Every structure is written in C-alpha cells, then in structure tokens.
Amino acid sequence: MSKHPVTLGNFLKDSTGLHVVIELKDESAVEGTLSSCEVLHKLLRCRMHNCTLWILLFITVGIICDEQHSIAIEEAVESSFAGLTFGTNSYFSKFMRKRSASEPIRKNRCELKLVADYEFFRAIGNNNYANAARYLINMIERVNSIYTQIDWGIDVNGYRLVNLGFSIKEIKIYDRPSTSPRHFNALASTQDSFSPMELLKSFSAEEGTNSTCLTFLVSAKVFDHGILGLANIGQAGERGICATKPIENVFSNTAIMSVRRKSELMITRVVDLVAAHELGHAWGTLHDDPNDSECNPPNSQDGQNGRYMMHESVNSGYDKNNYFFSPCSIRSIHKALYEIADKCFVEEQAALCGNGILEDGEECDFGGQLAAEKTSDRCCTNKCTLKHNAVCSPRHSECCAENCNFSPSHTLCQPTSPDTCKKSSYCTGNSSKCPEPKPIKDGIECADEGKCLTGECVSMCQILSKDLSPCICENLEESCQRCCRSAKTSLCQPVKPVRYLPEGSICIQGQCHSNVCEKKLTDEASLLSKFFNSFKDTPHHKVFADYFVFIIVFTSLLVWCPCAAYIVYRDQKQHLEVVTTSEEDIEIVEKIFPRRL
C-alpha cells in the first residue's frame, strides 16, 4: 500500500461496503462498513456527540478522508475495495502489532541554547565558570532522565515518539552584570524582585534564536510573587519549542527559571522539577486541571503517589508522581510534537565541538558556535584542542587559571556546602581538577532540618525513625508544619512537637508565609491571567485602542455561539437518525488500545 495519504472519496467511487476502523482521541475505535466519506463524517459526528471525543490528527496506516480521519485498512488491499471485510479480532491484533512495531523516531533531541545570568554565575558557580557550567550540564542530564522514559505516541510519519530529550548546543554564562536595570542580566541589588514577564521579554529579545529548538535562561534572581519560572507555551511551531519565526522581531522559543526562592537557593531536587516543569510548558502543556481527578489525583494522605509534575504549584519531590507527566500533559505534548518533532529535533550525538561542553575526544571546548561573530579563546582552538603551551582550560576545570595553567595551591575551588554535607576543597597546584571534598562533621544541620552523617544529609524524619520519610501534609492548616510519612501506614502526619517549615517553603498550594500556606503558582503559564493582568493600571481609552479588534470579536462571539450551538445540535440530531437506521453495520469497540502511562 502506498505510504502517501490519498483521498478516500477517490477509492469509493463505484465501490460500496468498505470496512474501516477509525481510532479516536480516547484510544477507543469505531468500526463499521462505510460507503462514502459523507457516511464516515456522520458516523464520527454521532460518536463525538455521544462521547465528547476528539479525533486523532494522525494517520495510523492507510488512507485519509478530508485530512481529518485516521483509517486503518489491510495492507493486502490493492485496487478493488468492494466487499472488503475482515474479522474484528484478527484485524485489531494485526493493527496493534503494527503500532508496537513502530520504529523509534531518530530525531530525538531538542537542542538547547542554555544561558545563565551573572547572579547564577556568582551564587551557584561561586564566580567560577567551570562550576556554573557543570551545574547546568548535570541539571539537564537529570531532566533528560525524566523525559526520555516517556512514550509520547506516534508522529505524523508513523514513528514512535520515544527517548525524546534535550541536547545542549551552546552554553553561555554571563560573568559580569549588564549595566541596564531593565536587562535580564542586571544586578539583583538594583531591585528586590524582578518581573518574570519583563525578564522573559528582555531575554527573548537579547538571546532568542531560531538556530536551536529552545533557548533557556537559568537565573538566581528573585522573581515577583514567588514565581519560579515562565515559558512560552508550545503551540505547533508558533510558540515554545521549534518556533523559528519571530513575532515582532522577537523569538518565542524561550523559557526562564530561577534557582532562588525568596532569599534562599533551592535544593537540587526542587530545581530539577522546576526546570522540567518549565520545559514541559515549552513542549506544549499547560497546568493540570485541578478539577480533573485523572491528572490531578486526590490527596496523598492515604499513600497515593502525589501530584504530577505539571501541577500549578511547585512540587517538593517527595512523591513519585512529582517526577512524571500526567496523562493530560502527555496528550497535550503529543499534540505539539506530532508534526514538529521530525522537523525541528536532531539526532542524538556523542559529541559536538563548539557547544561549550567537554565531551569524549575533546581536550577543551570554548563554545560560541551560535555567536554571530566567531570568537577566539586564550586556551582552546576552534577544533576543541588545547593551544600551544596551554595545559588546561578554565571553562572546564575548577583549578585552571586564566593563563591556561594550574591554579596555585590553596585556591578555593569548592566552598563548604551544608546541604551536601561537604567541606571546602582547595586546588593542589599540580592538577586542573578540584579534589573531592571531605565530609563535613557529623551532626551539622542540612536540608529539611536534617543532620549530616558520614557525608550524607539524613532528613529529620529519618532521624526520628528509619521507616519515616519527608512529606507535605495535605491538610491546609498543617501544610506549613514539618510532616513525615510512615512506611507502615502510608499516612503523612505532622511531627510532635509541632515544628514549622522555614519561610518560603513549599506547601500544599504554594509557599509558606508566616506559617500559613499561601497559594502561589510555579509560573505564569495561564494565558488568560496574563491577558487580563495587562489591563491593570492601563487607561480605559488605551485599553479600547489596544484591544479594539478583540472587543469586536468577543462581542460577535456572544451572538454567534448560541446560534452555532443550535445549528450543531440540529445537525447532530439529523446525523444521529441516519446512523441509527444502519446500526447493525456499526460496532463501537471500546478501549482497544491500552492507555499510555
């Protein structure tokens, strides 16, 4: 059978009795004997009207009717379709074998331009480029471990969307602040907190590019209202990933996040979840609907697996579902990836000279491959080899000085980190590598009010009992108290005596403020909230001028929608009567295909 889709109407001229299976959005299917595209349309409209289903927008195998419906037929069919019939069970088993045998897509990496601002360089990198770069690289590797495990479905060409993740095409780290207070790289001291919307605009204008799938800023600034990130929602190449066409000369394949909440840096597991969350928006999903029990499951007091990654408020990383996308998010992202993944993603590579990452076969890599003008590096050639007389590169080695030689002994290369229970580490003077730091003294406090023990941070819950683990109490009044979950009962309860979480800690609906859990969103992903917030403090005459077209369209919709609803209802009623008369030719086959988890 031809691999190219053709119009069903051409085949059905002078033919009757074509037996087809149409796969629907809920992964059930409609089976019946059809005589024309008109009957197909009526059948599907009836099915959609009764079950509120969407039709999948991809071809499984076979032919397309008006580019709207996916129809599967046997491969043995050649030119005559009249009288074609086949058994339901044998057909579906064959169809499912084809799906399971689908080849994985080869272009499986979304290339990133990864940017860090000066505040990140100072706070996370400790003014050391290699430290900052290593943090970013490790973060993306951990995020990849989340994304690459997911089966997103089938793309437009029939390839299975599996093992999809990110590759870093370029790393850019600002080692000095920008002078303009409106620049995304401005000093944090210029104001208490920054508008994430303004930062995203500045970042998109300054660093946006169509040379990568996505451009991602990691900052250490405090964002307004406890927001931790902001992303352009992926919309089939128009925004988010693969949006290669600028809007008003600004690229919208951009996202930003901060590693700082309030005045404190976040621990690694929360940073990873925020990064995965924002990248999920860029891939095409909104927040999970709080009223959808499938994608926003009930509370975890009884030992459930907790909230999914795209919950509207930040997750703690205590629960299993925190590291997984909900079924709703997977369906949304599949819709975005369906056509664009093959056009925008690239094949995974073992090494790429010019991306700023030291990889196998390279002596150094100073990056800059996306720069408008080719730059040179003091220590490294553009072929990723060390220059003459250079023994190392400060881009990759914590103990390499700017003169491309080893840093003097006793140079601090890794500061003390109570959260990781490690002491400070100092260069030896005869190596470019920072020595492995020694464990901090046992009993020193670390994350989650835990204590250091032999170089590891043991949580407060584990100190109380080995069968306890940290959790967030779902009772709003207890949500800002220190809570532990019992492995025996699966119950999450406050510790006694009561201990309150630090200011700004994650609670069930946002962040703790004065021991009260306040609703805070992880980001500003709500398109409507962004739109309506733009009205605030705007003169009425300017609002009318700026949104004149919107006002006219909105007013028209108030009149048009009821009329359209009536017409659709009448049309559906007529189609229902047509289909009912030939009910014996139609069988609804429920849940043929298992849901993807």
> CATH class of the domain at 107-285 and 325-347, anyone?
Alpha Beta
CATH superfamily membership of the domain at 107-285 and 325-347: Collagenase (Catalytic Domain)
Main β sheet profile? 6 strands, mixed
Rg is 28 Å
Q: How helical, in percent, are the residues?
A: 25-40%
Q: Got a strand count?
A: 24
- The CATH architecture of the domain at 107-285 and 325-347 can be given as 3-Layer(aba) Sandwich
Please state the structural category: alpha+beta
Instruction: Assign the CATH topology of the domain at 107-285 and 325-347.
Output: Collagenase (Catalytic Domain)
Strand residues, percent: 15-25%
* Shape descriptor: globular
- Low-confidence regions: 1-16, 46-101, 526-543, 575-597
Describe the protein in words.
- With 597 residues, this protein is α+β, with helices and mostly antiparallel strands.
- Among the domains are: 8-101 and 571-589, no CATH class; 107-285 and 325-347, Collagenase (Catalytic Domain) (3-Layer(aba) Sandwich); 445-519, Echistatin (Irregular), CATH 4.10.70.30.
- The chain has twelve helices and 24 strands.
- A hairpin with a 3-residue loop joins strand 3 and strand 4.
- The longest helix is centred in the C-terminal third of the chain and has 34 residues, at 548-581.
- Residues 1-16, 46-101, 526-543 and 575-597 have low confidence and may be disordered.
- The chain crosses the membrane at residues 547-569.
Helices and strands in order:
Elements: H1 8-11, E1 18-23, E2 29-34, H2 37-51, E3 63-65, E4 69-72, H3 88-100, E5 107-116, H4 118-123, H5 129-147, E6 165-173, H6 196-207, E7 214-219, E8 229-231, E9 254-258, E10 260-261, E11 264-265, H7 268-282, H8 327-344, E12 346-347, E13 412-414, E14 425-426, E15 445-446, E16 450-453, E17 456-458, H9 460-464, E18 468-471, E19 483-486, E20 492-494, E21 506-507, E22 510-513, E23 516-519, H10 527-533, H11 540-546, H12 548-581, E24 586-589
Parallel strand pairs: 5-6, 5-7, 7-9
Antiparallel strand pairs: 1-2, 1-4, 2-24, 3-4, 5-12, 8-9, 10-11, 13-14, 15-16, 16-17, 18-19, 19-20, 21-22, 22-23
